[in-house]
Design goal:
There is one protein chain. With 293 residues, the protein is mostly helical. It has 3 domains: 52 residues; 158 residues, Orthogonal Bundle (Ribonuclease iii, N-terminal Endonuclease Domain, Chain A), CATH 1.10.1520.10; 68 residues, Double Stranded RNA Binding Domain (2-Layer Sandwich), CATH 3.30.160.20. It has 14 helices and 3 strands. A 3-stranded antiparallel sheet has the order 1-2-3, covered by helices on one side. About 8% of the residues have low confidence.
Amino acid sequence: MGQVFAKIRKIFSRNKSNCLKQTILNHSVFLKAFLLFSQTFQNYRKTSIIRKYEKYPIKGMWKMDNQLTKELKEKYTIVFHDLNLLEQAFTHSSYVNEHRNLHLSDNERLEFLGDAVLELMVSQYLYRLYPDLPEGKLTKMRAAIVREDSLSKFAKECHFDQHVMLGKGEENSGGRTRPALLCDLFEAFLGALYLDQGFETAHAFIEQVIFPKVKAGAFSHEMDHKTKLQEVLQKSGDVFIEYRLIKEEGPAHERIFWIEVYVDDQLIGTGQGKSKKLAEQAAAENALAALEE
């Protein structure tokens, strides 16, 4: 900027007048100086903005996009029309909080949508695959397919865990391998795909990733852990089994529940889930595992 002002002083010095006022009123001289300053300031401003954003990992986002879009195209023939949706699906709230100046959106809203889309698709598939299965068993099988640990495994199989953008704190605490985070990531991707290309493309993705495992019987053995626990505990006589809600955390659309299961007031297992029913099932499953040890 110092060189710019030196040039401006040189322009003004060409005017032989000793009166600064007369120099400024000389339109051609003043306009030439002003244009030079304006052009230089704009170049300086652009350079400053570029330098400012180079401090933040924008390159990492573009790198993620290139790698991820390539995998999606090669493995699932998916090409996003709106890459902003794809980027949002892989942007965790921790990353947004640490990069507020980038004005990014996290994937929580997409997760909310993807959760509903996934449940509808799985429900429809199970309804058609098992025409004679009663509602209760269909519900249990659907719960097994869309629960946290199942979806986190699907996310890993799709290599989604390698591309999600996390804040430093979340990354250092093992967030990239956390089942709840990966479950939400999978649902967010499905929500983004649904918005970008509609129900049919989203369904084709699920048909490739989830339905083959269902058809192969990966979830048909799924049992009602609460019923099994009751059967095991009551072999020696009647007992009083109680499931107690000990805490719940998170926003309304992403609530997590913690449940403890007691038999005759003795704690035998704990569990958590995105609903009270799922948390009770998890607590019963953990209690059964403890009893088998």
